[in-house]
């Protein structure tokens, strides 16, 4: 198989790191974890956990990041875990044509509940739904085809079937190694993994979706309501 670059666009508090584990467990795949994060923090001035450590450990020139993303390997897969929140208005878009794109979505209510535990002062723009909608529409316009969409709740009901469908969509052979992986951190994890990746570091595969009812405060419901139209737009195209 000739080299391929796959960009997975997710919001926070989804199964994006578990998905990265699945792809990294293939023998033919290397991964990169949130390559725009350092630039995003430096450019926006936002106060995220481990802000200074993230900036110091990453590439802050977004154009240099782009150049690192668009060169396919001679063979195999270069899998890129992107958080859609990190997409900023000054980014150009022509380089997106060099990648295959997938969108990973989750219902906004549990995302709001989960992210609020880790970070105060949450806003709708912190969750990436609008950015996902923008990128999805842009890519559809540029190519005439809709990128693949994975809904995490549907995915977790049958990970193997979903991964097989995704690999078929991408014209990549399915690999059963994607279903399980060794527990623990990875050298490829961003430095922020020590703050965010506790659960996934204990995992050895995809856990079933939680069906626990989500209780939100009034201000959190406002945020979830603002995100939901973008979620529903993409969910219509989910595998």
Structure notes:
The chain has 239 residues and is of the alpha/beta class. It contains 11 helices and 5 strands, in the order βαβαααββααβααααα. It has a 5-stranded parallel sheet with strand order 2-3-1-4-5, with helices on both faces. The longest helix has 18 residues, at 218-235. It is globular, with a radius of gyration of 17 Å. The mean pLDDT is 95.
Short description:
Helix content is 43%, strand content 12%.
Largest beta-sheet characterization: 5 strands, parallel
In DSSP terms, counting alpha (H) and pi (I) runs of 4 or more, how many helices? 11
- The portion of residues assigned to helices is 40-55%
Fraction of residues in β-strands: 5-15%
The H-and-E topology, N to C, reads as EHEHHHEEHHEHHHHH
Mean pLDDT: 95
Question: What is the first-to-last residue Cα distance?
Answer: 24 Å
> For the largest beta sheet, what order do the strands appear in spatially?
2-3-1-4-5
Number of strands: 5
* Rg (CA only): 17 Å
What structural class is derived from the secondary structure elements?
alpha/beta
**Dominant shape:** globular
Low-pLDDT stretches are none
